[in-house]
Structures are given as C-alpha cells and as structure tokens.
Amino acid sequence: MASINIDNVQKAFGKVMAVDHLNLDIKDGEFFTFLGPSGCGKTTTLRMIAGFYYPTKGVVRFGKKDMTRVPPEKRNTGMVFQNYALFPHMTVFENVAFGLRVRKLGSKELKMRVEDVLQKVRLEQYADRQVSQLSGGQQQRVALARALVIEPEILLLDEPLSNLDAKLRDEMRSEILRLQKDYKITTIYVTHDQSEALSMSDRIAVFNFGVCHQVGTPSEIYNEPANDFVAGFIGEINLLPVKIEKIEREYIYVIVQNGESSSELAVRNAPFNYKEENKGDLALSIRPESINILDKETEGKNIFKGTIEEVQFFGSLINILVRTGGLQLQVNALNSGLSRNLEAGSEVWVELPDEQMRIIPVVNGDGS
Amino acid sequence: MIKNRDTRFTLLLLIPVLLVLIAYVLYPSLRTFMESLQKDGSMTFGNYSDFFTQESKTNLEALWNSVYISILSVLVSAFIGIPLAFIFNRYDFPGRGFFASAAIMPIVLPSLVGVMAFMFLYGETGLIPNAIKDLFGLDEVPFKIGGVSGILIVHAYTMYVYFYMTVSSAINKIDPSLEEAAYNLGANRFKVFWKITFPLLTPAIVAASLLVFMISMASFSAPFLLAGGYRVLSLQIYFSKINGDMEVAATQSVILSIVSISFLLFMRWYQNRKDYRMASKGIGAHRSEVNHPLLKWILVFTGVVGVIILLLPHFTILLLSLVPDGTWTWQTYPSVFNFENYRLLYQDPNIFKPLKNSLILSFIATAGNLIFGVLASYVLVKRKFVGKSFVDILVMIPWALPATVIGMNLIFAFNEPTIFSFGNILVGTFWILPLAYFIRHIPLVVRSTNAVLEQLDDSIEEASRSLGAKWFYTFRKVILPLILPGVLSGTLLAFVESVGEFPTSVLLYTISNRPISIEIMNQLRMFNMGQAAAYGMIQISLIALVLFISNKFFGVKAEKSLS
Fold first, then answer.
1. Which residues of chain A lie closer than 8 angstroms to B459, CB-CB?
2. Is the ipTM here above 0.90?
3. Beta strands B288-289; B91-92: pairing state
4. Which of 3.80.10.10, 2.40.50.100, 1.20.120.420, 3.10.120.10 is the CATH number of A229-361?
C-alpha cells in the first residue's frame, strides 16, 4: 500500500507533448480515476506509474521512494490491461501463479494464495481451464486475480471494462469496487466513460490534450466544473458565452448574447458560482436538470418565455429543447406532473435558478 | 553514457545481429564490388565498360535474356495463377478442396529435382513425347523441351504458385459486402469485377509479379540443365568463375545484384505505401456453387487433368527412383522396378555420404538461423532504435540476391583470412557451405518469426514485467513458448530448403562435403537416373513431411513464408 506523488511530470514523444506539467497526489488506499477523451494523456500517465515509460522531466514517487526510473518489474504494481494480456499458453491457475513463481514462492503457499484469490474473483472452479475457453467477463476476473495475487502496492486498471458488453460492465464495476475495498489497495483507474468515473471513484482527475484540468471528488467535478471542458465532458450542459456586467454583493449580473438582442442574467455571488481569479473568456454553465419549466408566466429572476422545439422521451427522464430568442436551452425533467403534457410547438417559460449557474473560464478548443 | 536502461538493452541485443549482418551479408557484397573494380592490377571501371561495350555482346545479351525470360515468366505465371485463384476461391464444385490444395504441389519439388523431372518427362528422350510418338507411329518425337521454351515451362510450373497463393489470400480478404454494395447500386457482374474486385487485388498482383520477376532473374537450375547455348546472367557468372575470370564474374554479380536490390527496394516501398485495403472483421469465404451440370463437370474434368499434369513430375521421380541403374539403357521405357536404389542409399556408404553431408550441413546452418532469426526478429519487431529500416533491408538482402551471387560474394570475401572468419580461409573448407546456407535462409526465418511476433500484443510482455519478471524470464516463459510454432515451422522449412540447395553448393562444395544436389548432378552426368531420382525422392519426402508437420502440429501454413 502506498501513496503516489507525481511531481511536475512531463512526457514528450518526439515533438508531441503527451503529458505536461502534471502534479498529482494520490492518497494511500484511494480509488483514483484518470478521466478524459482518447489521446488526452491518461494512459501515458498510467504507464509512467507502471514503469513502461520514463518521464521526460519530473519525478514519480511511491510513498517517499523515488520510482522515476525504476524498471517495471521492480515496482510491485499490479496492472490490468485493456485487452487483459492473459498469457494464452497457460491455464487460469498458471496465469495467476505467474507473478508468484517469479517471486519464487514455495509450491504450498503458492497454491494456497492462487486458490484464495480465485475464490475472491469467483473463478475457483475454472482453475484448470485454458484462458481462451473463458468469456470476456471471466477473462477480466483472471486479469484482476493475476494483478491482485502479488499483493501489489498499487493497482493499475487501464480501461478494464471497455471490451465488455453493457450488462457485464455493471457487474464488473461492483466487482472491482468490492475487491478494492477488500484489499484496501491504492487504485488508479483509467477510463473515458464518465459514468464509470463518477460512480466508482473517490477522486477524479480530468485530462485533455496532456493537461490535467481538474482534480476533485465526483460531486465537485460535476457540480463545480473548473472550466468549460470539464463541464462539457462530464454530463450534459448548457454553455452560454457571457460578459460580466456588474458585480454586486448578492448578485453578479451577466449579459448573454441572445440572437439579435441580449438578455441579462443574475447569478448569486458565491465562491461556488464564481471565482474571482477567473480571467479571459467566460461562459455561463447550467445543467439541464437544474432548469425549471413553468407553464405560465411567473414573477422572479431569470425567467424567459420560449417555445418547445423538440421533446425526447427516455422513460424516467424527458429531454426538452427550448428556444428563447436566439438561445437554445436543453432542459431535463423528471417524468411527472407538468412535463408529461409538453409537446413541440407549445409555449413555456423557463427559469434558470440563480444559485445553479456557474461562471467558468473558457479553455476549450486548442487545449491552451 | 546512455541513461535509459531500455535503450542500453536494445543496443546489447542489436550488436550481435548487426555484427552478423555486416560480416556475412554486407562485407561479402562489398568485397565483390571491390573485386569488380580490379582490372590488370589497377582500380578502374574497365570491367563495367567491357560489360556494356564488348564486341561479342555476350554479357549484354545474357542480361537482356534474363530480363526477357523473367518478364515472360511473370506473364505466363500470372495467366495460370490468377484464374486458378478465382476459380478455387469463388466457386464451389465437387473436389474443389482437393484441387485447391493440389495446386500448391509444385513447391514440394526442389528446383533441381523439378527440372530433372521435366527433362525425363518432356525432353528429347522424355516419356511423354516418346509415348505420343509410339502411340501414333510417328517417325520423330512430336515435341521436346529445351532452351527458352523449356526454361519458361519449368518457370511457369514452379512460379504460378506465387500468384495463386498471394491472389487467393487477397481474394479471401475482400469483404463480400463491398461487391454486394456495388450490385446493390446497380452495377453488373462485369462492372463489379473491373471496378471493385480487380482494383482491390492489384496490390497482391503487383507483389506476386515482382516476386516472380526476382525469382526468375535468380533462377539457376532450369537454365543450368535446359538452356543449351542460351545465355542468362545467373549462369554466366558460374561460367566466368569456372573459367577463372574472377573479375568478370564479380562484375556480372554486381550488375545482377543492382537489379535485384532495386527490385527489393521498390517492393518495400510499394508494400509500405499507405493503401486502401480495409481490414473488415469476420469475413467469411463466399463461394457460389456451380449448378449448371455441364459447367460443373467441365470444371471437375479440367481439375482432374490439371492435377495429373501437376503431379506428373512427382510421379516421374518416384517411378525413376524405382528403376535400378543399368536396366534402362537403350529401351524407350524402363522395364525393371525395385527398391535397389533405396537399398544402396541405405547400404553403400559412398551413396549415403552426400545425404549425410547435406543433413549435417543443413543442420548446422539451420541451428544458426534459428538463434539469429529469433534474436533479429525480436529486435526488429519489439524494440525501437534508429536505423531500423537499414537493418531490415540488410536482413532482406540475401532474399533478393540470386544464390549464385551469394556464392560469389562468399568466394571473394573468404578466400583470404579475415577477422570475420577468425583469421581462417573458409573457401575450400567444410564451413563455407553451412555459412552459405545460413545466409541464404536468414530472411526466411526472420520473416516467419516476424509474422508471429507481430501478432503478439506488446501488453503480454508488459504484463509479465509488471508482475515482476525480468526480461530474460519473460522471454523464456512467455514470449518463446508463444512464438515457437511459427519459429519452428520457418526453421524446418529453412532446413529442407538447405538440403535441396543447388546454386551455392555448386560454387562452393568440396569433394569431401559434397551435398545431395551435387551428387544428383554427378549421377545425371553418369546417366544413373535411378539413383538421382532416389535422392530427389528423399528431398520431396522431407519437404512434404515438414509442410505436413507445420500444418498439423503448429497450425502454420508454412508454404506462405516461401513467398
């Protein structure tokens, strides 16, 4: 068990900067997720922790030990690969036993430990099978067992669920969490799937173009995105370019360009909603589920009249596209009450609650 | 000095590979080049200007003949191989599977043995022309092969297989839905073939054409036995060497090398170019069943006739090997058949010796190929370093160079003490032949190992290392067991090819270590057809056995690494 410290790490492949100025502190026993689109540097970072790449600059520490240039076989990390990388010429038992044989364990203890871990992943009756005879989910469990049996200090999971179908994925998600809690092992989980990241992690680091944009708990990442990339990558979002008009004690007034005309919005002045250090282009972000739909004109702040353009029915949720002036807003409503009777073309009023709006910097596009 | 331990390790693996390639591939070629610049004791390009301007035009004519025969060989082979590939992969009719596998039978015939079979079958005293003569009461044989037509027929027989195999595999890689999409958009059969299917096959056809061209440029056995007075460059080199015109032989070798290596480079460029082939998953063969009864039986009948023609050479060798020497002299057809030749092979130490020599020489060469091949292939496929394509080209050069040229290169390099031969003269010793066989088959073993290593995902090696295994442990316990089938099938193939190797043997053998192919030639000179055929049969059985073992136990189509 160990904490991980990534200290100002940089990794370049030729002229391409795969990871730039990365600083992360991963706590002992934490379930930590690297989230981002493909090519964002999350796997590169994982591989620097595993020792398959050495950083161009910077230091990687496990606990207090400098591991920057330690070869992978001396790191005692357990890794689960995206394609599992099971040894096709060995049985399930031999695959799991491999790491213990390298460590020259006595045959009695070896057998005991392999059987123990196979039981933990519920594969004890498959010990003598060839790995090619197993289903995807079972192969995944063998890969997990093989990584766990060596009692690694750190467990590294590289998109482990991406090759499984939806139902198995849910099952393996809880399985991985159960094992992680069981072994109390520091775990780094790489994924591009936001729902995996949100549901499993203690903390998440969001990557794009080699830069880490935000580190935080799932709730922080979702509710207080650091910028428009994080807001847009995780969940659905309405992003409106805004300019700040005036800042008062209770409210911040911003202008949204609204087609020909422009409208004024009042955002509650709280650190949650607006951070003073944010400079440059700003955007106003609000989650679709935070917008309220009203069927008649009501007194209050931030209420606009609009027309429904489209209604999509998802069962428990209903997605509604509302146009107000030149703006298009996505609204998600629960399948109850008023929203059941909405249809395209009808007139509605939308309310943007003042405490639900965030004013965040714009970084999207070139990744700068 | 070098900080990264991975880079240091790559270098450690690379150095022996590079050393072998420089010592036995690059250095001998350079020695030949140096030799070609020697004329009357001074350094000039005189030999080259002689080559192109000499009055008798012998050399120029030989170069032109080589090119001419090679182009014709490409055309004839394509004309046979491409339609066959289509018929066998696109249509289903009784016996299709059998015909399809019979179509690759020419490759179990070592070149010298194949040419010998053709002589017995279709030559002046051949069985077929004489049978026709007797059958119709003619005064003279109706036809006989020899000269250009003879060489061409042998080339067509042995080389159409390359077209057949490459085009077949390309046809099976075409996603049927592409053609279905074209039909769906309203194209007719003719249009679909010329606009969709054929363009998709072009890369395979070009690759096969280049391959056949190079193989015919290098062809030695066929011209050696059939050419008569017809001059080709590969044979001219041999004659120059026999006549002691070493500088001329060197010049001819360099010119033939330049042609071959330019073809190699062109082929690499062509195959590495980004092309439009798409990898679709899960393509099933789609064959249409031939339902028209007349057409179906015409196909079956043609297939049967084709198989008979294909197997006739094998059968002839088998038949002749059963004819004891001295029983077939003036008669048109042999009359006595028994196992005398095989008994002698087993009992007469003099007759057994060449076989034993060949097995020992090939074993040594192949053991070298195995070790070098695995090492070189691992470095080339799994390690990153600067200058990889240079090493890759060095590995492929022995494949591009005609065997005659490799033989000459070795003569020029090792008829004097060098550091690469540890201060010994190798020419005229036992060791020159294993070395020649080793060099000849470097590309074969490296390429068949590459094929399996490329399929091995890098993450397998990484998984092992992250579980704590050092490189060598990983290599022994994980990588080697996984690639062994592919490696062994390539190595076995190299072994049987070495047993049958003729062109380098004829340039380099000594009396005491003469291999089987030289003895076949000697027996033919003494008109001991039976004994020669018995040697041939042994080679055929060895090759067939190896292909069978590879298919059965290693699940590898070994014949594929031949092209």
1. 81-83, 85
2. no
3. parallel
4. 2.40.50.100
